[in-house]
Amino acid sequence: MYAFQYERAADAKAAVDMLKADGEARFLGGGQSLLASMKLRLASPSTLIDVTRIPGMSAIRMEGDELVIGAAARHADVASNPEVMRRIPALAVLANGIGDRQVRAMGTLGGSLANDDPAADYPAAVLALNAIIVTDRRNIAADNFFKGLFETALSPDELITAVRFPQPDQAAYVKFRNPASRFALVGVMVARTGKTVRVAVTGAADKVFRAPALEQALCAAFTPAAARAVRMDPSGLGADLHASAEYRAHLIPVLASRAVEQALKG
């Protein structure tokens, strides 16, 4: 490691002001990706601005029909929160499957979304549940947030403060995980609200994406068989030492069918 400054932000405005004053500074959430990058000398911020102690940033609450989760909420807190488990149990299950116990104890919702790893779990939930990402200056719809490999719609000095999740009628997340990293080789989140079905896929390409063919099939018949019958085009999907694009294309409808089965069980 190398020398750097550590600052603890009192509120969102103070955090953003500190970042604007030092272009080499970085926001610090759980640090599960940033600190690892620093150890490998892939990142060298001059200052780490801790945003996890900002009052209200880790709160989990209901506002009307929306579940609002603060950006500094730890994965373990989301997984065990009674309101999450009651309102969107699929989100609690997803959070409980992120990394290992240490990662879940330290990693944060906002940090995961800002980092936007293409195999992360939370982006699938945000996209499938049609969530709103709340920042220090605006609201960003999930469909407009994820732009590419580790790239989001956030401005360089913009801070995620919370995520607003509409409550679906039924939802479930299933992933085929890498046994070492526990990231998703492919992960599929299915969410049904009224007559609308949204399906988000992570781990299969350079960013999370919706699967229109699966959405159309499941809008017509919300059954595991309908999902399994869909054939995904492997072009545009990722290929690496863990799985080919064709294998990932095969996994997507298989996992979607399992997600539908789980969602129907409630």
From TrEMBL:
Domain FAD-binding PCMH-type: 1-170
PROSITE patterns: FAD_PCMH
Entry annotated with the keyword Nucleotide-binding: no
Pfam family name, one: CO_deh_flav_C
Listed name of the protein: FAD-binding PCMH-type domain-containing protein
Organism: Cupriavidus pampae
Keyword Signal: no
Classification via PANTHER family: XANTHINE DEHYDROGENASE SUBUNIT C-RELATED
Keyword set, alphabetical order: FAD, Flavoprotein, Oxidoreductase
